[in-house]
Amino acid sequence: MVSPAVFAELKTHLQRVIVGQEALLDRMIIALLTGGHVLLEGPPGLAKTTAVKTLAESVKASFQRIQFTPDLMPGDVMGSEMFDSKLGSLNFVKGPIFNEIVLADEINRAPPKVQSALLEAMAEKQVTAGGQTRALPELFIVMATQNPLEQSGTYPLPEAQLDRFMVQLNLSYPTPAEELEILRRDRARHFGEDKATSQPLLTPEMVLQARHAISEQYVSPAVEQYMVSLVSATRHLESLDDKMAGVLDMGASPRATLALLHAASALAWLQGRAFVTPEDVRQLLPDVLRHRIHVSFAGRAQQWTPDKVIQKILSQVEVPLASNFAQAAS
């Protein structure tokens, strides 16, 4: 049986390549353990691509980077039928989506028809083309990046697409100390002093074993109710505060509750616990919800942001008592 210690070692290995970005590494590992998809948003140059590629190499998983561009076609991602002159028939040629870890780089640069083509793959882990449905690898996850600052030549992701991502992580610039370490590591690599390489630490089979263990995590009825209350509060903000009526155009769907359950179960397992606590839920709620709720024009006029709304919900929804969930430890 795979233990959490193996994934702690994986994180340590990733930290030898990636400086800082603690939240990025944690959420990538949680996504790997749950089969969830991750949307990474931040300025260029923050090692998003390097982090995803290093993770794939560390897990010995098949990896493909897809550079999303305005002229990309669905067939360029999913694959298409090609005529075989020797056989005189059409054969399906698989696209880059048929890999275990897929990096959708600058996903918001692709037109809506390409984004829509990803919906089935991300939700059901299958691709339908040429009248036939083909399964994707069991480990399959998508990690997508987008630049929040640049709007020219981009296509905002539709709500249905955003809802397919388990978490969205907003990345920030490194601290001065971290940037100094990045500079020194780069110089060491330039002069051949840094011999660190990405070597496989796990196999896809080990990850799938861990996913099975996580699915058996105990979640008490009190914690289940807490998760439902947090997510459903996004649909009825006026129940928390009359002044918040109309702040959101749209709340989160039940898919958000499921994502929260899976992510919290993985976090508890990584910390060596067989049960989920409210703190696990609270820690992950911002990343699970921020891309699933939409602040209205009136809400923006009142200086509300998705993260501020989430913090308001966390402060207003009652947290279960320890006696209601800690019994799982016995």
UniProtKB/TrEMBL annotation:
Transmembrane regions: none
Domain of life: Bacteria
Record InterPro entries: AAA+_ATPase, ATPase_AAA-3, CbbQ/NirQ/NorQ/GpvN, ChlI/MoxR_AAA_lid, P-loop_NTPase
Molecular-function GO terms, alphabetical: ATP binding; ATP hydrolysis activity
AAA+ ATPase domain: residues covered: 34-175
Protein's UniProt keywords contain Zinc: no
Nucleotide-binding keyword on record: yes
Keywords: ATP-binding, Nucleotide-binding
Assigned protein family: Belongs to the MoxR family.
Protein name: ATPase AAA
Classification of source organism: Bacteria, Pseudomonadati, Pseudomonadota, Gammaproteobacteria, Thiotrichales
